[in-house]
Amino acid sequence: MLSGLDPSGGAGIQADIQAITSLGGHPLPVLTCLTVQDTNNVYNAKAIDPGFIRQQLECLANDIPIHAIKTGAMGNGAIVSILMDFLESRPGIPMIVDPVIKAAGGGDLADDELVEAMKSNLFAKAEMITPNGIELIQLGGCESEGLAADRLLMAGCKSVLVTGGHGTGTHIINTLYCHDQAPMHWEVDRVGDNEYHGTGCTLAAAIATGLASGLSARAAISQAQNYVHRTLLQALTVGQGQRIPDRGIPWER
């Protein structure tokens, strides 16, 4: 996976590592950016040198089979270009894109150049992108969920899973949009009244792990949602802001 470092341990690459490991996968963490962050917000971010990331990806691929890729915060557009070059010679690896733009507290994790790089390049290589409702509106350019998802599908990705954790009500509705198919909905009980730090990272990483283990996209989504729900039932209070999922829970496979 390619993700940023959240020093609070709630989101980013640590969330990916914990979720993938808990579900029986072996993570290959490639760090894209450093952040100044706590459980409330992101205050600063600095991208890793793209050339160094290129070396890491090539080194790993020459040694270890890669069965899926998950991306989170990408740092900048140059890192997206590095990943695109890497994928050109390795077609067929399913990629789950969590299009991280802003932290829950409002701090920016992607500038306009990076957002455009994701829309024009990264999405076209994705098996699935997993925006929340706020990210969907920004990326799709309209308030209609269905129309915004269709626009993202037109960018070339195979499917769009719109997550509903930022909404209200007793249930979270996650909706999968695919080409030439009716949308598929999952209804998940909402845990508590507040948002949690790192649920999007956890869900996307769990889906990627399911795909890597041979599950279908829908089975991977179902497993990932069940896993995230269990992590929230035992969420941890580590700071003064949002609680974080307990991704160290035992998982029966």
What are the SSEs and their pairings?
Blueprint: E1 2-5, H1 12-22, E2 30-37, E3 42-47, H2 50-61, E4 69-71, H3 77-88, E5 95-97, H4 112-122, E6 128-129, H5 133-140, H6 145-154, E7 159-162, E8 171-178, E9 184-189, H7 199-212, H8 217-233
Parallel strand pairs: 1-2, 4-5, 5-6
Antiparallel strand pairs: 2-3, 7-8, 8-9
Verbal overview:
The protein has 253 residues and is of the alpha/beta class. It has a single domain (2-233), classed as 3-Layer(aba) Sandwich (UDP-N-acetylmuramoyl-L-alanine:D-glutamate ligase). It has eight helices and nine strands. It has helices at residues 12-22, 50-61, 77-88, 112-122, 133-140, 145-154, 199-212, 217-233, and strands spanning 2-5, 30-37, 42-47, 69-71, 95-97, 128-129, 159-162, 171-178, 184-189. The strands form three sheets. It has a three-stranded mixed β-sheet with strand order 1-2-3. Strands 4-5-6 form a three-stranded parallel β-sheet, covered by helices on one side. The chain is globular, with a radius of gyration of 17 Å.
In percent, how helical is the residue content? 25-40%
- The CATH architecture name reads 3-Layer(aba) Sandwich
* Rounded average pLDDT: 92
- The percentage of residues in β strands lies in 15-25%
In spatial order, strands of the major sheet run: 1-2-3
Q: N- to C-terminal separation?
A: 22 Å
Give the beta-strand count.
9
Apparent shape = globular
Number of domains: 1
Gyration radius, in Å: 17 Å
Q: Segments where pLDDT lies below 50 for 5+ residues? A: none
Determine the number of helices (DSSP H or I, runs of at least 4 residues). Answer: 8
For this structure, the CATH topology is UDP-N-acetylmuramoyl-L-alanine:D-glutamate ligase
CATH class membership? Alpha Beta
H/E series, N to C? Answer: EHEEHEHEHEHHEEEHH
The helix-and-strand class reads alpha/beta
Instruction: Please outline the major beta sheet.
Output: 3 strands, mixed
Could you state the CATH homologous superfamily? Ribokinase
